[in-house]
Amino acid sequence: MSTNQNKRELLRQKRKAQQRRKIYLTALIIIGVLVIFSLFALLPKLISKPANYGSGQGFALGDPGAPVKVVAFSSYYCSHCKSFSESLEKEFVKNYIEKGKVYYRYVNMASNNEQSKNAAEASYCAADQNKFFEYKSLLYIYASATTAFPRKT
Fold first, then answer.
1. Terminus of the chain with fewer CB atoms < 10 Å: N or C?
2. Partners of 70 in beta bridges
3. At a CB cut-off of 8 Å and minimum separation 6, what does 104 contact?
4. 94-129, pLDDT tens digit by residue?
5. How far is it, in rounded angstroms, from Cα 111 to Cα 119?
6. Does one domain contain both 43 and 79?
7. Are 23 and 72 found together in one domain?
């Protein structure tokens, strides 16, 4: 081989190496950005302490002998009920139920809507497994969908 061919081959190899470095660097930057955005999205969830639903028995939380009994009549299609469940209930559980001040019981108020009845029926299955309060938040989220809770046979 001539010296010009060797030089051309070396230049090709250098260009390929540079292209690989650019690809690796671009991929590394993209992965870094994704990790940073993921941390910002997940950090509040990791830091916040979830409500303690461990004392739940079916549709109830807390000590049945507590001095105050609270019964919440609620529907999965009620915006006020959803708002309480998403924003206030965790603090209520933390400040009153966990401290033994309140016994809290949830009562399903299914409307004549077939989907509402299906959601209430599904919540009974979750309550049988003492997972109602965890499941209830999902019911509120999906209740806003137009085809929420269809009956599957």
1. C
2. 104
3. 60, 61, 62, 70, 72, 92, 93, 96, 97
4. 899 989 899 999 888 877 677 778 888 888 888 888
5. 10
6. no
7. no
Q: Is 123 left (phi over 0), alpha (psi -120 to 50) or beta?
A: alpha
How far is the first Cα of the chain from the last one, in angstroms, to the nearest whole number? 76
For residue range 54-81, what is the model confidence (pLDDT) as tens digits? Answer: 555 678 888 889 999 999 888 887 888 8
Beta bridge partners of 107: 73
Per-residue tokens: 3: 């010296």
Spell out the long-range contacts of 127-135 with Cβ–Cβ below 8 A and sequence spacing 24 or more. Answer: 127/58, 127/59, 128/58, 130/56, 130/57, 130/58, 131/56, 132/56, 132/58, 132/59, 132/106, 133/51, 133/53, 133/56, 133/61, 133/106, 134/53
The pLDDT, as a whole number, for residue 32 is: 92
User: What range does the domain containing 134 cover?
Assistant: 60-143
43 and 68 inside one domain: no
Identify whether residues 137 and 64 lie together within a single domain. yes
**CATH, residue 131:** 3.40.30.10
